[in-house]
Design a protein that fits this description.
Elements lengths: L1 H13 L31 E2 L19 E16 L2 E8 L8 E4 L3 E8 L10 E2 L19 E7 L4 E6 L5 H6 L3 E7 L9 E10 L9 E3 L3 H6 L4 E4 L12 E4 L3 E10 L4 E6 L3 E5 L7 E4 L1 E4 L3 E8 L4 E7 L3 H5 L3 E7 L28 H11 L5 H12 L4 H4 L17 H5 L4 H7 L1 E7 L2 E7 L7 H12 L11 H9 L10
Parallel strand pairs: 1-2, 2-5, 3-11, 4-9, 10-14, 13-21
Antiparallel strand pairs: 2-3, 5-7, 6-8, 8-9, 10-12, 14-19, 15-18, 15-20, 16-17, 16-19, 20-21, 22-23
Helix pairs in contact: 5-6, 6-10, 9-11, 10-11
The structure holds copper (II) ion.
Length: 498
């Protein structure tokens, strides 16, 4: 060991001087479990500080091995998984993910697991940071209203997942039974300004995404690996709006990110940031300058980055439908002064037509009618016909060719009671888009329709008139003037129309 380090030093300073023939130069390593026993615990036992996500306990600050007492409670409880949707979670410490545990390599951990008397199920815990069969599972098997105890020495430094391993294991994990335990290396981790605890999990409910009311666990979906929700910290919106993670420009942020699974692996990404360092797989070495890091089910990673530019940074699973259609989205908000030399914000927004201006569009009829409309000569039927052609390939991409939309994702335009109530808003919706919560025919949507500013006033009028007179809607007309006024108006707010 000494000799290898010496060689490494020589190799570095003399650039390939000696030391190569007889002994290969290897990277200095931590020695793993064989170097992780620092002897018996010293001093009085300490009680571990446990935190609920997204908080992380303070560094242990210890330089000698200690006896650390961890007291963790299993609580089965109903909580919201999304707005208006409840689910019976099984938890470690009353939260999903469970309480964050922080110890130091070489510590002797006396682990107490209590299962609340009102639990319906027995539970146990398998900590990936434990050296010993089952990671503690058999030793910690605990019936409702019981407590159990076992002790382990944390021989390997790293960030480890813990989870319940009671049969059926998948069901216990799917119900939220996982969390993280950090085993600090003996020298501790580098100082940072903020530390946060985020954990991804996939959830399987009997109803569809956003179906309201209490939802049961769907074993079949779980076996098929078709999650209804993919979430950070156990609830859609757990880390958005007023619950967003907070930081400031100039700060260093460290995220401890775990993936409980039970099924999916995470392509973890922060939109608009680059991880300066990633301790991939929660281990000892770090990679630098990483865009997206893979976190396996039952695995974890630590990442650090420095905040330069203020704004909202979106944490996603870059398997991106999970982010926008299953909930895997969180926000890290950085406050501070603008930094225009690093990021300017939008500098140019101008019309770029390219060849489109010259060549005839696919719908020559539409163009002709649009021209006719411009000159004030088109009949309502002609406008509807022109609107139909424009609808196809613009609105139909999301709302469907027949305007039926897609349950939970794109609201229907066909027989839309929302539209019936607000027909005057239609040109505004087309030109400014729509976001926020909207209820259409009894179903909630909380998504984003992009503004369609590329459409001319005539095109907006034609599409609008077509929509109002199709798909069983009540009729009406959108004029060129309506479109013109809408273009000048401020963006539509879905909530305001209720
Ligand atoms: Cu369990």
């Amino acid at each position: 060991m000494r000799r290898q380090m010496f060689c490494l030093f020589i190799a570095a300073s003399l650039a390939l001087a000696g030391c190569k023939a007889d002994k290969p130069v290897v990277a200095v390593d931590s020695g793993g479990s064989q170097q992780g026993d620092f002897g018996p615990p010293q001093g009085e036992p300490v009680k571990a500080v446990l935190t609920s996500p997204p908080l992380v306990p303070p560094a242990t600050g210890r330089t000698a091995p200690a006896k650390v007492i961890v007291e963790l409670d299993v609580v089965e409880k109903d909580m919201e998984i999304s707005e208006g949707v409840t689910y019976t979670f099984w938890t470690f410490g009353g939260t999903v993910p469970g309480s964050f545990i922080r110890v130091r390599q070489g510590d002797t951990v006396e682990f107490h697991l209590r299962n609340m008397p009102d639990s319906k199920m027995p539970h146990n815990i398998d900590l990936h940071g434990v050296t010993g069969p089952g990671g503690g599972a058999a030793s910690s098997f605990t019936a409702p209203g019981h407590a159990s105890q076992f002790t382990f020495k944390a021989l390997n430094a790293g960030l480890y997942v813990y989870h319940c391993a009671t049969a059926p294991v998948g069901m216990h994990i799917a119900n939220g039974m996982y969390g993280l335990i950090l085993v600090e290396p003996p020298e501790g981790l580098p100082q940072v300004d903020r530390e946060y605890y985020v954990m991804q999990g996939d959830f399987y409910t009997t109803g569809k995404y956003h179906d309201k009311g209490h939802q049961g666990f769907d074993m079949e979906k779980a076996i098929d690996e078709h999650p209804t929700y993919v979430l950070f910290n156990g609830r859609e919106g757990a880390l958005t709006n007023d619950k967003a993670l907070q930081t400031k420009t100039g700060e260093n942020v460290r995220l401890y990110v775990g993936n409980g699974g039970p099924n999916l692996i995470s392509s973890f990404h922060v939109i608009g940031e680059i991880f300066d360092k990633v301790w991939y797989e929660g281990g000892t070495k770090y990679q630098e300058n990483v865009q997206t890091t893979l976190i396996p089910a039952g695995g974890a990673a630590m990442m650090e980055f420095h905040m330069e530019v203020p704004g909202s940074y979106v944490l996603v699973d870059h398997s991106i439908f999970r982010a926008f259609n299953k909930g895997a989205l969180a926000i890290l908000k950085a406050d501070g002064p603008e930094n225009k030399t690093i990021y300017s914000g939008k500098e140019v927004d101008e019309v770029y037509l390219g060849d489109k201006a010259a060549s005839a569009p696919a719908g020559a009829v539409a163009a002709a009618v649009a021209t006719a409309a411009t000159t004030g000569n088109a009949t309502k039927d002609e406008r509807i016909a022109a609107g139909k052609t424009l609808f196809a390939g613009t609105c139909s991409t999301c709302h469907g060719p027949d305007g039926k939309g897609m349950s939970g994702v794109f609201p229907p335009l066909a027989g839309s009671d929302y539209l019936a109530k607000n027909p005057k808003k239609l040109p505004e919706i087309i030109l400014h888009g729509l976001q926020g919560k909207v209820t259409v025919n009894g179903k909630d949507y909380n998504s984003v329709m992009p503004p369609m500013v590329q459409l001319t006033d005539d095109e907006v009028a034609n599409i609008g008139t077509y929509v109002l007179n199709s798909f069983g809607n009540k009729g009406g007309e959108v004029t060129r003037d309506d479109a013109k006024k809408a273009r000048a108006a401020k963006p539509a707010d879905a909530a305001a129309a209720h």
